Amino acid sequence: MKYLNESLMWHIASQVTELKKLVVLNKDVLVGLRSNYDKPEQMKELFRRLQRPKISQNVDSVLQRMSIIGVIICFRSLAQDALNDCLSERIPFLLSSIVDFKHHVMNGDSMLENIKLQIVSEMASATGLPCKVDPALVSALRSQKCELGEDEYQMACLLMVFIAVSLPKLARNESSYYKPSLEA
């Protein structure tokens, strides 16, 4: 299960790297979209710049990569649920001890408390318990080198802007639909 988890997180990290490259390619338009969110006319003009035929492929690529990330995370969630069900049948006492560890670990500001939280989160994740912050994904993303030399905060903000302006295209797609029973 650990190898599967690491492999899936590696795939997500590689998709994130490609998303960062798309953000860098469209940085000037995305910065304009981010700073003019309260000006509808400028937003329309900037979004039209993203819709140009050559750049429109970037919008499709962002949607496709985010869909791939979503599918991987859903698959991983199903695998972890199955693992948790199996462990709760076979070793319920050990699993309840791990749940107790998870519920009683302090989330603080000190370095020691953060290390404790990280260790307990890794242990909980290894047994299929959900965590607020996925330790495998954190380590996969942390292992990526920032080759682009960009500010990570700004890159994350621009990626959210790119996704936000791309979502209406996904919503208008006839093959896209929402099933409330599946929450997807």
From TrEMBL:
- Assigned GO CC terms: SCAR complex
Q: List, alphabetically, the Pfam families matched.
A: Nckap1
Which InterPro entries does the protein's record reference?
A: Nck-associated_protein-1 (IPR019137)
From which domain of life does this come?
Eukaryota
User: What is a biological process (GO) this protein takes part in?
Assistant: cell migration
Homology family: Belongs to the HEM-1/HEM-2 family.
This chain's protein is named: Uncharacterized protein
User: Lineage of the source organism?
Assistant: Eukaryota, Metazoa, Ecdysozoa, Arthropoda, Chelicerata
